[in-house]
Fold:
Amino acid sequence: MAVIIGPVERLVEEFSKLPGIGPKSAQRLTYHLLRSPDKDAHELAEAILSLREKIHLCPVCFGITDKELCVVCQDEGRDHSKICVVEHPSDIPPLERTGKYNGVYHVLHGAINPARGMEGDNLKIKELISRLEGDVVEEVVLATNPNLEGETTAMYLRRLIMPLGIRISRLARGLPFGADLEYADDVTLGQSIEERREF
Ligand SMILES: [Zn+2]
Structure:
């Protein structure tokens, strides 16, 4: 039997799917919107839709952008000879906030899960290698997360990049093992990229 749910339950359910939103918060947000002026609800809905319509992946680094190239790739003031490899687009803002990195990025869109074997096919690894072969890259900073998947990915990439004769570095230890770059504090992350070590 199909469950019939009304607009209130439906929105509570949708909010509950978001990270960090439990059923209580979902309900609070829904009732807040019910009480808010029409305009606010429309603006929220419009912002969500335009996020999906206008945002695409940068064809160079696979970060997200609403322009042809992302702000970092199109910035000639950045050092394009350094590429910082991250797992997700959401890892870039925390690294940018540290103000300690002036190179460009490459987003893998995931990490290798050792439990499922060395499957890197769905990651942007081929694209990274062709960037390294094509561009004048002097250093690759492996900034995958300091957890099992991130370490496995970093080691896998090192094996691929080493023959190209490019300097490889890894974020300094200091970020706790199992940490997520996205949630690291700015100071620790800043030190970690500044004091990156040969890998
Ligand atoms: Zn880009």
The CA atoms of residues 14 and 26 lie 8 Å apart. The chain has two domains: 7-54, 64-198. The chain is about 40% helix and 15% strand.
